[in-house]
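User: Show me a protein chain along with its predicted structure.
Assistant: Here is one chain, sequence first, then structure tokens.
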Amino acid sequence: MGIGFNLLIILILLPLTIILLTGWLITRKVIYGKTLGLIWLAIFGLYILTLVMHTLTKKKLLKKDDFYGHYIINKSFFPGKDADWQYDSFQFEIKENDSLYFYIMDAGKIVNTISGTIKTVKPYQSQRLILNVRQPRSHLIDSIPTIYRDSWNFYLVFHSPKFGNMYYKKGKWKPR
């Protein structure tokens, strides 16, 4: 708990609890007991609400296993012709044996595959993805992706000198 909560307990709630408890024991009036119960019920309710909100809003901590799967262009960031073209042209897959397969597509068919491997590093609490791409390299996945996390999922952003930022999310490619 923070220092503010501790000061609230020590300086306000503890003396108020002692006063209300003493008043209730001396006078036997129910209002003192109800007030005391209501105050502590509100405190515990706020504490539980804070725990729930923290759990629902904290960012996902990524492990290596979280990166395995198929990735497609996330068209929701910049919908339009360019996003549709990127969606139809690029996707990649990270397999559980740490292999990477970047697919360049045309009309739903794979025309070129760039392969490599992945590894993860953990500079902080959440792991980061590092790509090792074999020759020939491509400007599409030549950089270390930026990872954006929210409570339940994450997405990867690759910077391409030709196309700008390309946003990928986990998902299965389907024809539009």
